[in-house]
Design goal:
Layout lengths: L9 E4 L5 H11 L4 E6 L2 H13 L4 E5 L5 H14 L5 E4 L18 H27 L5 E5 L6 H4 L12 H20 L6 E5 L13 H4 L4 H12 L9 E4 L2 E2 L3
Family: Belongs to the short-chain dehydrogenases/reductases (SDR) family.
Pfam family, one: adh_short
GO molecular function: oxidoreductase activity, acting on the CH-OH group of donors, NAD or NADP as acceptor
Length: 252
């Protein structure tokens, strides 16, 4: 890998070897940016990055397990060594184990809660913390947290919501917590050029929701990624501390 020139945008997408993460990496790379595809499985990250490079995009794999402190630290050190800064961080890595767990075993299952929060909340917080100095070294650092409308407390209580019937306590509360992290980071970084926002990509055709999700979901990964990428490139005076989807702001 060659050292990125200072004029080139450097982006890191977690959970980028497939689905929404891969689509997001592709769209960011199509702007001319250098994109680092983070994944816990190095071989899968290498394969995905190689496919994108075959298309002429500047993409490189980086081993990053968001549940491992040592893996996160090693990835941050690698980015600092090879690039010296990070312009965009997309906290995309997420899990939804409740989708494939029988209903009778789901309510307030502490194992599910711990697994879900370890990735969806603690992972995003740990990665953001580790890369914060590199984001602050950029002209305009951006953090995009991939959330969900199901993390909106207002939406959960709205009987007209298309998600009103969904009861996924671990996933829904993890995304609400992630939104809280977005607000806290935005406030604590308000005197810096770093912008922090939450994005709901919609119901996406990925493997996240189990084997039947691809057929049921209405939105392709590429379509969903456009909302994520839009927030990844907000201008210096753009929004921070917001929660949006393709149609605009979402109530907290």
């Amino acid at each position: 890998m060659t050292i990125t020139q200072q004029t080139t945008t450097v982006a890191l997408v977690t959970g980028a070897n497939r689905g929404l993460g891969l689509a997001t990496a592709r769209l960011i790379a199509e702007t001319g940016a250098t994109v680092l595809l983070g994944a816990r499985n190095t071989a899968k990250a290498e394969l995905a990055a190689a496919h994108l490079r075959d298309e002429g995009l500047v993409c490189w794999p980086i081993t990053l397990d968001v549940e491992s402190g040592s893996s996160i630290a090693e990835a941050a050190a690698q980015v600092e060594r090879e690039h010296g800064r990070l312009d965009i961080l997309v906290n995309n890595a997420g899990i939804l184990p409740e989708a494939t767990t029988p209903d009778a075993e789901r309510p307030l299952d502490m194992g599910l809660f711990r697994r879900t929060f370890d990735t969806n909340v603690f992972g995003a917080a740990a990665v953001s913390q580790a890369f914060l100095s590199l984001l602050r070294a950029a002209d305009v650092g951006r953090i995009v947290n991939v959330s969900s409308r199901m993390g909106s407390l207002t939406d959960q209580l709205d009987p007209t919501s298309p998600y009103a019937a969904m009861v996924l306590p671990a996933y829904q509360s993890s995304k609400a917590a992630l939104n809280g992290l977005t607000v806290a980071l935005a406030k604590s970084l308000s005197d810096t050029p770093v912008r922090v926002n939450s994005v709901c990509p919609g119901w996406v055709q990925t493997d996240l929701g189990g084997p039947d999700n691809r057929a049921a979901a209405p939105t392709t990964a590429l379509e969903a990624a456009r909302t994520v990428v839009r927030m990844a490139f907000v201008p210096a005076d753009g929004p921070t501390g917001t929660f949006v989807d393709l149609d605009g702001p979402i109530p907290w």
